[in-house]
Write a structure and sequence with these properties.
124 residues, alpha+beta, Beta-Lactamase, six-stranded antiparallel sheet, 6 strands, 26% helix
Length: 124
């Protein structure tokens, strides 16, 4: 592992993801699946959104809908909500590309999962 990757891995876990805009399915890997509480592999956008802080879902959906209409870059941050009192911070950076002729395009990006220790009140 390079020194930069080793340094970053002390503070967060990262994983790339892809989305096929022709069918709305996202490919997430082992780390993303673990933190989202989902099966590894394909899942729909709404399945991902249901994992996120309820107050953030609409704005994230709008952001991704806009990115699915034309090539663009985007980022967002939210919390993944697990059981009662379980919140995992998430940052996402990505882009949409491939809108040529009649092609629907693709999205790709990186999930960043900061390593945090919950305090006694579940806030970060």
């Amino acid at each position: 592992m390079s020194p930069d990757k080793l340094e970053i891995s002390k503070y967060c876990a990262t994983e790339s993801w892809t989305g096929d805009l022709s069918n709305g399915l996202f490919q997430i890997g082992r780390i993303g699946s673990y933190f989202h509480g989902l099966e590894e592999g394909e899942c729909g956008l709404l399945t991902l959104l249901r994992c996120y802080e309820p107050n953030d879902r609409v704005s994230i959906l709008e952001l991704l809908e806009n990115a699915s209409a034309m090539p663009s870059s985007f980022c967002f941050s939210t919390y993944i909500i697990g059981g009662p009192g379980e919140r995992q911070p998430l940052m996402c950076v990505g882009e949409s590309t491939g809108f040529i002729e009649n092609a629907q395009g693709t999205m790709q990006g990186v999930f960043v999962f900061p390593r945090v220790v919950n305090d006694l009140f579940g806030t970060h």
